[in-house]
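Worked example (supplementary).
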Amino acid sequence: MKKIEAIIRKSKFDEVRAALHEADIDFLSWWGVKGQGTAKQGLIFRGIAYDVNAIERIYLSFVVREVNVQKSIDAILRSAYTGESGDGRIFVSAIEQSIRIRTGDRGDESLYDKEQKDA
Amino acid sequence: MKHKIIKYILMFCALFSMPAIAFAQDEPVPVLNSGDTAWIIVATILVMMMTIPGLALFYGGLVRRKNVLSVLMQCLILTAVIIIEWVVIGYSIAFTSVEGGLNAVVGGFDKIFLQGIGIGDLLEGYTIPELLFVSFQGMFAVITPALIVGAFAERIKFSGFLLFSVLWALVVYNPLAHWVWGGGWIGEMGAIDFAGGTVVHINAGISALVMAVLLGKRKGWNVKGVTPITPHNVPFVVIGTALLWLGWLGFNGGSGLAADGLSASALLVTNIAAAAAALTWAALDWVINKKPTVVGFCTGVVAGLVAITPAAGSSGVLGAFVIGIVAGLICFFMVAYVKPKLGYDDSLDAFGVHGIGGIIGSILIGVFATQAITGEGGAQGALYGDWNQLWIQVVATVATIAFSAIMTWILFKIVDAIVGIRATAESESVGLDISEHGEIAYE
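After joint prediction of all chains, the assembly is encoded as:
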C-alpha cells in the first residue's frame, strides 16, 4: 500500500479528479492550502500592486494498492501539467496498515469495494 | 446644460419660498412642519445606519479575520457610549452658548441631561423639534470617533481605545462642533461646513493620523513586503460601502434640517461626487495596476462622499463633479504613494480618505460655492470671482487640523499613562478578537 499526495494548481483540480476517476481511483481527500515556492501571485490593495509568494494550491491525498500506484502517478502527471513554474509535486510513501471502519477489513481488502468493482 | 436647468429649478424654488419667508416675519413663532420633521427623523436613522452596520462592516471587512470582532465591537460600543455622552453633556457643550468671549470656543452647561428641552420645543429658527435635532446631531457625534477606529485597528487595547474615545468626544469633538455649528468662532467667521467636513472628517482624519503615528506600525506591516496585510472579507467592505453611501444621503440631505430644495440639491450633489470619485479611483487602478479593484472602487466612493460633505449645501452639480474627481485623485495618491513613502501605518486609511477628503472638500467650497445654491447675497467661491470665502475656508481648515492634532497628541499621552493604548505583542499576534473579547468570528 502506498499513500500518494500531490500539490496541484487549483485550475487543474477538476481535470486531475477526472483523470483519477478514469484510472479507477475513486477514494480521495483534498483540501485547499497556501504555500510558497517559486511561483508568484499578483494582488492589488488600495492602489498598490504586490507580488505575493503565498500562493494557493489544492493538496490531494489518497492511499492505493501497489497495483494502482503507477496508474495514479501517470494520471496526475498527465492531467496536472501546464509546463509553467508552479505545477506542483507528487509524493509517494509507504503505508503500514489500512483498516475499513465499517467491516474491519484490513490491508488491500480495505482499499476497494469488493461488491462493486476491482478498484 | 443640466447645471443651468438645476439653477433654474432652484431659482424657481427660491421664488416660491419667498412668500413663506414674508409670512414668517408676520408670524414670529415658527410652527412645527411635519414634512421637515419626518425627513429629519428618517435622516437620523440613515446617519445611525452609517456607523452600525455601515462603517462597522466596511472596517470589519478590511481587517484580518482575527480582528474583525474587535472592530465591530468598537463601532458598537461607541454608538452606545456616545449616545449617552451626548445627552449627558455633549449636546450642551456643542450647542448652547455662554456669556462673553468664551462662547467663541466652548458652549455651556445649560442643557446638560437635556434639561429644559420639552417635546413641544422647536429648534430655534427651524420647524423641527429640538429633541430631534439632539438625536440627529448625536449620530454625527457617534460616527466621528468611530471613523478614527480605522487608523489604530488591529493593534489597540480595548480599554485604551474606550477611554481615549470618550475623552476625545468630550474635549475634541464637542468644542469643535461648537466652533463650527454652535455659535463659535469658525461659524461666526463665515466658514461653511454644511454636514461636517471640518467637525467630522478633518477632525477624525487628523486625529487618526496622529494616533497611527504615535501607536506605531502593526507587527509585520510593510507595504512592499511579500505578505501584505489585506482585507479578510471584501463582500463586507461592499455592503459597508453601500450602507455608508445610502446613509450619507441622510447625513448630507438632512443637514439643511428641512425637507426642501436645498435638501434635494444636497442629496443630488452627494451622489454626483461619490460617483465621480469612485470612477476616478477605478480608472487609476485600471491604468496603474492593470485591474480595477473592488476595494479600490469602494474607497473611491467614500473619498467622494467625504469631500462633498462640507460642500453639499453650497456647491452645484459642476462643483460636486470636480470635487469628486479631485478627491479620487488625491486620496488615491495619498494612500498608494505618500503613505508607503512616509511609512505611517494608517491601517484602514482613515487619514488618507477622511482627513484628506475632508480638507479637499472644505477648501474647494471656497472655489465652487455658488449663489445658485446659497441664494442671493450668499457665499460664493473663487470661480465666481470672490476670493474671500476661499481664505475663510483655509483658515477654518488649518485651525481644525491644528486643534485635532494637538488635542489628540495630549489625549494619547494621558490615556497611555493611565491604562496603556497599544495591545501587547502577544495579543496583537493572536488577534484582538480572542485576546480582548474572548470570541472567535468564524469557527
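Two points are worth noting when inspecting this output. Confidence is low (pLDDT under 50) at residues 15-24 of chain B. The radius of gyration of chain B is 21 Å.
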